[in-house]
Design brief:
Helices cover 41% and strands 15% of the residues. It is globular. It contains twelve helices and nine strands. Strands 2-1-3-4-8-9 form a six-stranded parallel β-sheet, with helices on both faces. Strand 1, helix 3 and strand 2 form a beta-alpha-beta unit. It has a single domain, classed as 3-Layer(aba) Sandwich (Rossmann fold), CATH 3.40.50. The protein starts with a helix and ends with a helix. Helix 4 packs across helix 5. InterPro entries: AB_hydrolase_1, AB_hydrolase_fold, Sec-Metab_Biosynth_Hydrolase. One of its GO terms (molecular function) is hydrolase activity. This is Alpha/beta hydrolase.
């Protein structure tokens, strides 16, 4: 019965947000900002569970997108569709590889701000893999499982479950990290070497937040990308892991709200 109620509630929320009657229902409030959260590799939409209610409490519409993790360009197209359906202004938020995805979103006047959460902000021609190795410190390669061969060709990458806690989510309780390890979404290996297109951060204001104990993307790399993008506000969380949105949702939600408010007033 609880499962049925949950599914019914989820369907109602989806219908209210983007259903055929959404425009009519939201017409008096069409200036309300939609925040689209894009998870990265080895994560999934539930990694935003602590952020979503905090943003909703601030009055934002929130969509935690299901990032396909197949290709940078293709994944960006899936986000483009959500941007098009949003009835008002949009803030795009990307975690890790999701930062490359929001950087490659199609130019759209609805997009008012980009927020990078321990995320890649590639320039044109750069790849996620290249940026990972540009500064020393990432221990990710040694924690990956043997690639899984896909029937249609290509390979999927996972983090070994026995290495996931310390590598990916060291500041999350071990039991919670174990669930995250079991439910992680694989990324196509080809997506990590795909060259980025013209980045949106050259046209749209950006904000950055990351932890200085990130073992996937070195803190120096994250700071370098924030500086290059002309970050309007950069928050560095001492001791935080790669999944700052899970371990530090209050600070992440606060920065997203700040970005949305400042972008709305520019």
């Amino acid at each position: 019965m609880q499962s049925f109620k949950f599914l019914a509630l989820a369907s109602a929320i989806a219908a209210a947000a983007f259903g055929p009657n959404a425009a009519a229902a939201d017409a008096p409030d069409s200036s309300r900002t939609t925040v689209i959260l894009v998870h990265g590799a080895f994560a999934e939409s539930a990694s935003w569970d602590g952020v979503v209610p905090r943003l909703a409490a601030q009055g934002y519409r929130v969509v935690a997108a299901a990032n396909p993790l197949r290709s940078v360009a293709g994944d960006a197209e899936s986000i483009d569709g959500l941007v098009e359906q949003a009835p008002g202004p949009v803030v795009l938020v990307g975690h890790s590889y999701g930062g490359a995805v929001i950087s490659n979103a199609r130019a759209n006047s609805k997009i008012k701000a980009l927020v990078y959460v321990a995320a890649f902000a590639p320039d044109q021609g750069e790849s996620v893999l290249e940026l990972t190795g540009r500064f020393p410190g990432s221990t990710l390669p040694g924690t990956l499982a043997e690639p899984v061969q896909r029937a249609g060709g290509g390979e999927d990458l996972y983090i070994r479950q026995d290495a996931f806690w310390q590598q990916f989510a060291a500041d999350v309780p071990q039991a919670q990290a174990a669930v995250m390890a079991a439910t992680q979404r694989p990324v196509a290996k080809a997506a990590l070497v795909e060259a980025s297109g013209q980045p949106r951060w050259k046209e749209v204001p950006s904000w950055f937040v990351y932890g200085d104990a990130d073992r996937n993307i070195p803190a120096a790399a994250l700071q370098s990308m924030a500086d290059r993008a002309g970050s309007r506000g950069t928050v560095v969380i001492p001791g935080a892991s790669h999944v700052v949105m899970t371990s530090q949702p209050q600070q992440v939600a606060a920065l997203i709200g700040q970005a949305a408010e400042q972008a709305a007033n520019r």
